[in-house]
Amino acid sequence: MNTLLLLIIAILLPPLAVFLTVGLTLHFWINLILTLLGWVPGILHAVWLIFLS
Q1: Could you say which of 3, 41, 44, 49 has the lowest number of CB atoms within 10 Å?
Q2: Residue 1 pLDDT > 80, yes or no?
Q3: Angle 32-35-41 (CA atoms, 0-180°, nearest 5)?
Q4: Residues 53 and 18: beta-carbon distance below 8 Å
Q5: Which phi and psi angles does 13 have, rounded to 5°?
Q6: What is the pLDDT of residues 2-49, one digit of tens each?
Q7: Contact of 35 with 19, CB cutoff 8 Å
Q8: CB distance 22 to 53 below 8 Å
Q9: Are the C-beta atoms of 50 and 7 separated by less than 8 Å?
């Protein structure tokens, strides 16, 4: 998937971007918890995973 599109999705819905990047793995659940605890940690984790993959 296009990296720019994934970055936009990561800002709006971080768990969706992680799901589209790595699937339903442990990273998805970590990102979901981070997003529920605070939006910014979820975004940072999603962006990190997008650039890592």
Answers
A1: 3
A2: no
A3: 120
A4: no
A5: -140, 85
A6: 999 999 999 999 999 999 999 999 999 999 999 999 999 999 999 999
A7: no
A8: yes
A9: yes
